[in-house]
Amino acid sequence: MEELGTTAYVILGMLRRGARNGYEIKSRADVSTRFFWAISYSQIYPELKRLEGAGLIEGEADPAGGRRRQAYTLTAAGEETLHEWLTRDGDFHLELRHEGVLRLFFADALDREEQLELLHSMRAEHERARIELERIEPTARARFDESGDRFPLLTLDMGIAYQGFFIDVCERLERRLTEPQPISGGT
Amino acid sequence: MEELGTTAYVILGMLRRGARNGYEIKSRADVSTRFFWAISYSQIYPELKRLEGAGLIEGEADPAGGRRRQAYTLTAAGEETLHEWLTRDGDFHLELRHEGVLRLFFADALDREEQLELLHSMRAEHERARIELERIEPTARARFDESGDRFPLLTLDMGIAYQGFFIDVCERLERRLTEPQPISGGT
DNA sequence: GCTCACATGTAATCCGTTACATGATTCT
DNA sequence: AGAATCATGTAACGGATTACATGTGAGC
């Protein structure tokens, strides 16, 4: 059997957590895993078929009225595969693409005012992201209270702190650039 | 003229900062921008030709002994394009793919020991990354002292703090999971 | 003589996004 | 009647990685 991509494991994981079809997988991912691993419909539907072909999930027709719908569940093999991934060691995919920091790297080409403007818009972006996460938090907390599953809430709180990290960094830098010329460079 | 991808701006920026050819662009990127925007040779060389075709850079033969080498410089149009990008507003590309946090999201499927193992390996990965950045820091600091350009050093220090953020989060969570069963979920 | 750093490229492939396409049900 | 939500897919494209391919120069 071929190697699975990380996106496949998102699907397996979401099914294990109770999502039943492609639409539900996407809806849930959009308010949770998307902040550290985004997926889209055009990955999900073909992948569901591949996973079924590999015997890791099983789908059955589950029409809602006249609306076509396919309900998937993990097989034992799927459960096992998911567990293997969760406990696998060796390094995992870790990638950041941050155009804001990238611009900041080249910001010596800008004048003071432009530098501040860049920092400000970067901070604003992270503040928007934090607000979005904070809006989700109560729902996540409620789901934790029902299910006892703590990691979705923990990773959400981690995401909020993550945005806070960038917000703080921007704020501090903005202040430093505003203050009268400091002498040294680093922290 | 077609829209430029972010990678094109990395190249323009590196040329502005004094890199002269594809090899130098890559070498410098590998110890700086790579941590928030990775690039590879197979992007650089074709892109250099496209940028030359678009009149944003100019290349001339610059052989080193019998070794073929092409030296590029920014044109006025290239300088302008770079500046436009640095000051552009509207949201920029911001993407994180973190397989560790993703696994953590699904970690309710693991037992306590496996959860701790996951956190530990995640922390180790970020510690490796931090050490790598700390090794680069003196060089970056020296280059700041020579050139007066502060943002490369600032973004490097930011990268070090970034790794520190994840290390702290992991540590705190490890401690929490080790302590006798807490009652509540969130922060 | 060997290895490492310098230097430049192409081809195949993978992964992901965006746009396109369709249709039923529920809510207002 | 119309909009939003539920639900499933395909096609085209773009961006990036990996593997492949080649050759010089400098230092040991």
Commentary on this structure:
- 2 copies of one chain form a homodimer.
- By secondary structure, chain A is mainly α.
- Helices cover 62% and strands 8% of the residues of chain A.
- Chain A is built from 7 helices and 3 strands; from the N terminus they run H-H-H-E-E-H-E-H-H-H.
- The first copy, chain A, has helices at residues 6-16, 22-30, 41-53, 76-87, 99-105, 112-147, 151-178; strands at 57-61, 70-74, 94-98.
- A two-stranded antiparallel sheet of chain A has the order 1-2.
- In chain A, strand 1 (57-61) and strand 2 form a beta hairpin.
- In chain A, helix 1 (6-16) crosses helix 4 (76-87) and helix 6 (112-147) packs antiparallel against helix 7.
- The first copy, chain A, is elongated.
- The mean pLDDT of chain A is 95.
- Chains A and B meet through helix 1, helix 4, strand 3, helix 5 and helix 6 of A and helix 1, helix 4, strand 3, helix 5 and helix 6 of B.
- Chain A binds a DNA duplex (28 and 28 nucleotides) through residues 5, 7, 21-24, 27, 38-46, 64-70.
How is the secondary structure organized here?
The structure is a homodimer of 187-residue chains.
Chain A lengths: L5 H11 L5 H9 L10 H13 L3 E5 L8 E5 L1 H12 L6 E5 H7 L6 H36 L3 H28 L9
Antiparallel strand pairs in A: 1-2
Chain A binds a DNA duplex (28 and 28 nucleotides) through helix 2 and helix 3.
